[in-house]
Amino acid sequence: MSTERRTRVRFAPSPTGPLHMGGVRTALYNYLYAKKRGGDFIIRIEDTDSQRFVPGAEAYIIEALRWCGIIPDEGVDMATGAVVEEKSDRHPHAPYRQSQRRGLYRAYAEQLVSAGWAYYAFDTAEELAAARTAAETQGQTFIYNAVTRKGLRNSLTLPASEVEELLNGRTDWTIRFKMPEGRIVAMDDMIRGHVEVNTDTLDDKVLWKRADELPTYHLANIVDDHLMEITEVIRGEEWLPSLPLHYLLYEAFGWQDTMPRFAHLPLLLKPVGNGKLSKRDGDKMGFPVFPLNWKNSEGETYHGYREDGYFPEAFVNLLAMLGWNPGTEQEIFSMKQLIEAFSIEHVSKSGAKFNPDKAKWYNKEYLRMKSDEELATLFEPVLADHGVKADHAYVVRVCGLIKERATFVADFWNIASYLFVAPETYNEKDVAKFWHPENYELAFKVADKIYSDGVEAGEEMIKENEWPMGKIMNCIRLALVGASSGLGIADIVSLIGREEFARRMARIKETLQ
RNA sequence: GCUGGGUUCGUAUAACGGUUAGUACUCAAGAUUCUCAAUCUUGCAAUGGGAGUUCGAUUCUCCCACCCAGUACCA
């Protein structure tokens, strides 16, 4: 029995574009799992596809994680935001970018060849494409396996001398895994339980390619997880079909004893209709699918939660609850509470449809938990954009009174602009409803009373005379707000002051009569 | 097509053989307030279908249907 290993999990994104919310959730679950167990959360960049590399994607991923408060222990230096390239006590497995580890993989691939678990394949891309279309025309799918490899050009079918020649020649070749025949691979997934697959349905995956001297995902992933002493692999469900290959790879290397445990997370699905959440859904349906704004090479910008006004705590909270539940009825969790409560047993098996309404609800909840002071700090730049200069203490007071009415700080201006500038227009429907002589004549009398003795005195006056409270107050409200909505008249007057109150009453009189 | 995974109110989920199938979001109604929002109350609404196992199935087994993923010298 080996002694209990320190928990080490990794998030291994590929820098082929911005990380979307599903990716962030995968990172989050890894992070929660590690922190719950007092272990390490490692970032590794899987950039073994030289064709699909997207500039800026790596920095985006790191920035997104930082915004969410998902801080890696290893792999990225968070002070600089850079992927670590030099070994140190903190980062003993550097470099953490697979393209910078390229020298190490070939030997592992060749180890498999000499052990009989892999072979050299000399088929060109064209030959394979031809084989695929040929199979397709017969209504079949070409798979590179124990049957078909016998008829293809590789180190299993060609004489040794020719193999030697081809290996040293100018044409490209690959190392492929030699998938065993007729074996049942029995696997165990932390979320899905026991899964079995017959190897006859699997193909001989490419492990290493001569063309760019780089491993493919499968090889690099297994080798690095082993080298980095990863104990649990928590990744998206799309990897489940590759699990048998990965099990076999651990076996082929003789690393079964330290093979990590696997957990395949359910996918995030689009809110309506079928299919997984894709980057186009968001802008079409009015919600972000990315944590941060992303501008692609064509200049199109995709919305991010951050720029759309979500608090990172709310974003993390809503993501955590998409596919996981605490087993209690608690819904609001800080990161600290999530770490405490998280367990892989409570991760669900089925895909989760994302619900934008619930996302907004989370933000609303976090908004009202913020202090008036903090909200004021966030609101002040918005005010400045509207050309408003307001006293800080005043803004703090306003925030305290309006925060329960908003979902985002960005709503504040629409909700409360009348507390900073007088209305310039009056809502037509509300005018039609309330602005009648029998109402506004009384309203002006009450307004005079309010001006001299305060709102309470004005209300007294209405009650004593048994005037219609609602109609009169709404006429006054129309003058102050420009519509029949908003804070109580007493609050408004106490905020804007009696002089401004009088000016607004005078203005509506001029405008509407 | 093949292989694998999945299936509880519209959505996220709870109930891991015994509940009037719970909670939250959304929606609707009512209460409240000078209005709106907020708040409170109430309501609408689910075990995909069929066989079994069992005294008893949301829960276990099988079949079907549907959904998803994979099926690249991409991850």
Explain this structure to me?
- This protein has about 525 residues and is an alpha/beta fold.
- Among the domains are: about 160 residues, Glutamyl-tRNA Synthetase, Domain 3 (Glutamyl-tRNA Synthetase, domain 3, Alpha-Beta Complex), CATH 3.90.800.10; about 45 residues, Helicase, Ruva Protein, domain 3; about 80 residues, Arc Repressor Mutant, subunit A.
- It has 20 helices and 16 strands.
- The protein has a four-stranded antiparallel β-sheet with strand order 5-6-9-10.
- β1, α1 and β2 form a beta-alpha-beta unit.
- α16 packs across α17, α16 crosses α18 and α18 packs across α20.
- The structure holds one RNA strand of 75 nucleotides.
CA gyration radius, whole angstroms = 32 Å
CATH topology call of one domain: Glutamyl-tRNA Synthetase, domain 3
Given as residue ranges, the uncertain stretches (5+ residues, pLDDT < 50) are none
The total beta strand count reads 16
Instruction: Report the sheet-strand fraction.
Output: 5-15%
How many helix segments?
A: 20
Structure class: alpha/beta
- How helical, in percent, are the residues? 40-55%
Q: Give the neighbour order of strands across the main sheet.
A: 5-6-9-10
Identify the CATH class of one domain.
Alpha Beta
On the 0 to 100 scale, the average pLDDT is 95
Proper CATH architecture of one domain: Alpha-Beta Complex
Q: How does the overall form come out from the CA principal axes?
A: elongated
Largest sheet: 4 strands, antiparallel
What is the CATH superfamily of one domain?
Answer: Glutamyl-tRNA Synthetase, Domain 3
